[in-house]
Amino acid sequence: MVPWPGFLVLLAAEAVGATTGAPVGDLFVKTSVPGARVFLDGTDTGQAAPVVLEQVPAGSHQVRVVAGCDVGEGSIRVEGGLVARLELTLAPGDGFLDVAYTPVGSRVTVDGAPVGVTPLLRLPLTCGEHRVEVSGPGRRAYVETIRLGLDQTVFLKGALGVYEAGRLAILVRPVDAEVRVDDRPVGVGPMTLDDVASGSHTVTARLAGYQDAATQVVVPNGGVGRAEILLLPVGQRPPSPPRGPIAWGHVGVDVGLTLATVGLGGLAWGERTRAADAYRTYKTLTYADDPERYYDTEVRRPETLSWILAGGAAASLAGAIAGWIWLPVVEPASGTAAVVATRRF
Questions:
Q1: Which one has a higher pLDDT value, 335 or 125?
Q2: Does residue 345 or residue 170 have the better pLDDT?
Q3: Is the pLDDT of residue 14 over 60?
Q4: How many other β-carbons are positioned within 10 Å of the β-carbon of residue 42?
Q5: Would you say 226 and 335 are in contact if contact means Cβ atoms under 8 Å apart?
């Protein structure tokens, strides 16, 4: 004998089956990630797991649960008047990538791993961020970070630009130092790199127990850029760069300023002496000798000229002293103490 509540449930199920013409049952869906959205036979139920889907038509059904980028899928058979149970474990789902860059046959890498050549269609990738690079010989690489959503397709289309290239020769000591170009590892020890984009590049060398060193090198189109790097042990101070020969043109200027100081000073002293002698004569003149005119021409004029010449002598002297103190030299090739030389060929 069926208990009264159970009798009501059976009666309701029979009523639903009679109405629809087909038996129905219930479906309990449980997931490893609570709150996952539940899809039944491709239709969003609007409910989140764990959940009991009621009055599900008897038969086989496809259940899909989605939580962000995680997805789980499974099949279940529902029998009329019974409760089916389906437990699903979610895992990262996929999106898709299409790449249609020219020239055809350009290499495509995703997160550093090669995945094929263009045209590349419907490449499944776990949803989330990915670094995509499209490259080819003699072409500038195209790099983009994409974000894929679940079941989303990202389409990349374009043409790789032509770039000018040369070769880069790197000589490093010690020979087991790690070498990087533009912060990208290229190997260990001395080497020559082919197909390097023309322009300026930063070459870095490092080795445990030694000080890191870096230098800039220019790779000309069709030519060779060369960088030589010497690593110094930790704690060792770099040697002072050798001083080159004296800049003789600057010496000539200093000598000229010195002679000008002597000449202007002598002239100023002569005019000053002349003005003093004339002043003594002026004091002995009478009114009939027109002393004011004599003072203007023989005293005031040479005295003013002596001050002008003295100022010029002082300026020349200051320039000569500064020149001798900071006498420049012709320095050798520039660079840090750890970098021996950087040359362009």
A1: 125
A2: 170
A3: no
A4: 7
A5: no
What is the four-CA torsion angle of 179, 183, 138, 148, rounded to 10 degrees?
A: 140
pLDDT at 22: 77
Distances (CA, A) of 241 to 41, 130, 210, 325, 335: 78, 48, 20, 20, 9
Tell me the C-alpha distance between 326 and 319, whole Å: 11
Assigned token pair, 269: 């002293």
Q: pTM of the full predicted structure?
A: 0.43
Name the β-bridge partners of 116. 108
Q: What is the number of other CB atoms lying within 10 angstroms of the CB of residue 344? A: 11
* pLDDT tens readout for residues 19-60: 456 799 999 999 998 999 999 999 999 999 999 999 999 999
- Identify the pLDDT of residue 11: 42
* Positive or negative: CA dihedral 118, 121, 125, 131: positive
Residue 63 CA to residue 47 CA, distance in Å, equals 12
φ, ψ for residue 141, nearest 5 deg: -70, 145
The two tokens of residue 309 are: 């010449």
Separation of alpha carbons 335 and 165, rounded Å: 25
**In this prediction, what percent of the chain has a pLDDT beyond 70?**
84
**Phi, psi for 250 (deg, rounded to 5):** -70, -35
